[in-house]
Amino acid sequence: MRKVFLVSAVAMAVAGCAAQQEYSTPQVRDLSVSRESTPASHYTVEAGDTLYGIAWRHDMDYRDLARLNQIGPPYRIQPGQQLRLSDAAAASSGESRSGELGQGQVATATALGGGTAAQTGDDDWLLPDEEAIERNRRLTAEPLSAEEGVPSDTAIAGAQSIAEGPTQPESQPQTPPEPSVEPEAATAVQPEPEPEPQPEAQPQDAGTEVAGEPERQPESNGRGYTPVAEVPWQWPADGELVGRFGEGGSITAGIDIAGQKGQPVRAAGPGIVVYAGSGVRGYGNLILLKHNDQYLSAYAHNDSLRVTENDVVEAGQVIATMGDSDAESARLHFEVRKDGQPQDPLKFLPER
Question: Where do Low complexity bias regions lie (predicted)?
Fold first, then answer.
């Protein structure tokens, strides 16, 4: 019986240790997935970027991106520049600046005259001058002596001269006042200013600057950009529709049109090129066209590009050739965005 009790006690002790180890085991979570899903708060500008391309890459309206970073047309940016991508990023950067003194840093008092107080902890310059205070108190309390209480003749004369005001010496001749000039005579003498030539009115927000390149020159094709009120949409390429809006693939914000490598890709409407390059991952050789302040269109996976930034194009103009850059086959990926938000292109393109 005694052995049975001993065995039971040992078993209970072992179970208790196991339970204690089970509860004391730290819980480990893999945070890599959550980190990857967290949207970026800042973007570092690279050579060849434009503000439109950066906004497109992060599903933003280019105007919001410009507002966050206080950049105006023509949206000039520089390689290495940090751009904020959200209001939260702007707020956090402001809080970090305002909270610098609260993180263990001590404000340093500055002495009068611009000098900095010694860092040895000696604050004698902040203390009052006891000797000066005592000297002022003593002078105030002591009465003036008989001799000191009588003002001198020089002091009386000086006080009278100050009270009477400055006088001119008799030997100095007084200058007669200059005759006043009538306003009409002065106006007649001055010639009328020639009207300044008025600069030609330039449409605001008409183009973009490319990071790392000199300031843009006037449009190479000689046409000026005028945003259209209504975009006359037309199909950008001939071919079979192999991908619809929101269906499969890594890029689901538009449609895919299959075709042959090298066939022409045309502008779906008149506008100005605000991005032309391969810096947007997943799009290959990409062209972004701005039609007006609301609508932009994208042409991806091109083989070659026939336009550059700030080229003004007409509807139906060839802007690229179809290719398979960042795609499994030759195709055109076409998108339409309104105020930065993806739209179904089939709602805008005519039926065929």
Answer: 88-103, 182-191
What pLDDT, on a 0 to 100 scale, did the predictor assign at position 71? 94
Other C-beta atoms closer than 10 Å to the C-beta of 335 total 23
Round to whole Å and give the CA distance between 257 and 208: 29
**Better-predicted residue by pLDDT, 97 or 332:** 332
Domain ranges of the chain: 39-91, 241-347
Higher pLDDT, 73 or 21: 73
- For domain 39-91, the CATH superfamily is LysM domain (3.10.350.10)
From 37, 60, 77, select the one nearest 210 (Cα to Cα): 77
Residue 227 has pLDDT above 90, yes or no: yes
193: Cα within 13 Å, side-chain hemisphere: 3
Element (H, E) at 242: strand 241-243
CA dihedral 318, 319, 324, 330 (to 10 degrees): -20
* Alpha-carbon gap, residue 211 to 79, rounded angstroms: 6
Query: What distance, in Å, lies between the first and last C-alpha atoms of the chain?
Result: 95
Closest C-alpha to 263, from 323, 305, 315: 323
pLDDT score at 118: 42
Q: What is the pLDDT of residue 306?
A: 97
- Residue, of 20 and 270, whose pLDDT is higher: 270
User: Looking at the predicted structure, is the pLDDT value of residue 284 above 50?
Assistant: yes
For strands 331-338 and 341-343, give the pairing.
Answer: antiparallel
Sign of the torsion angle spanned by Cα atoms 208, 211, 216, 220: negative
